[in-house]
Amino acid sequence: MIVFVGLAVLVVGLTSMVTLAVHMAAAVRLRSAAPLLHPWVLVQAAVTPLFCAGLAFLSGHLTGFDPTDPSSVCNGRVSRMFQDQSVPESRLVTRSVVPVSVVCEEYPGDPDATEQVPGWVNPVVFAGGGLALGCAGLAPFAGVLRRRLCRPEPGAA
User: Fold this and answer.
1) Which residues, including other chains, have CB under 8 Å from residue 36's CB and lie 6 or more apart?
2) Which residues sit opposite 115 in a β-bridge?
3) Which H/E stretch holds residue 103?
């Protein structure tokens, strides 16, 4: 079931990216913002960064996770080939949802604790969420924006 949900989210996200790219190409070709100022296009523009933020969020939370052996998080039992020698064998894992964080420590409050989530994850999550909120907030006003920004030139019939 979760595979079908994941595939549906992937299809919706990728479809939104493609259709948004088509609308942007039409706007560039027409040299007008009119194709971009429709409520549906702004909703697609909200779904696209939300999709990217969701992928970054999942990437951050699944960092170091092996579904076949959950105890291998934090470099616990990993084959020598994939083991990071700079990370000590730790067993205590502290997770945070927002901001995305997976910290490996040998004991609570360990000053040598290591963060497992890459540094790019949280900025992408917050930027994607902010862009999605901005585009979704503009969607109800698309008609007003279109009337104000895309006025016909005087003398054009």
Assistant:
1) 23, 24, 27, 42, 45
2) 103
3) strand 101-105
Task: Provide the strand spans (E) within 32-100.
Answer: 92-96
What is the rounded distance in angstroms from the CA atom of residue 152 to the CA atom of residue 123? 40
Distance CA 54, CA 61 (A): 11
- The Cα–Cα gap between 106 and 56 comes to 27
- For residue range 98-149, list pLDDT tens digits in order: 888 888 777 777 787 778 888 899 999 999 999 999 999 988 998 888 888 7
Q: Which pLDDT tens digit goes with each residue over 36-75?
A: 888 888 898 899 999 989 888 888 877 766 555 555 566 5
Q: Is 124 helix (H, G, I), strand (E, B) or coil?
A: helix
The whole-angstrom separation of Cα 36 and Cα 23 is 6
The secondary element (H helix, E strand) that includes residue 147 is helix 142-149
Helix residue spans in the chain (DSSP H): 2-30, 39-61, 121-138, 142-149
Dihedral over Cα of 74, 75, 78, 83: its sign: positive
Tokens of 62: 């699944």
What single-letter amino acid sits at 157?
A
Q: Which residues pair with 102 in a beta bridge?
A: 95
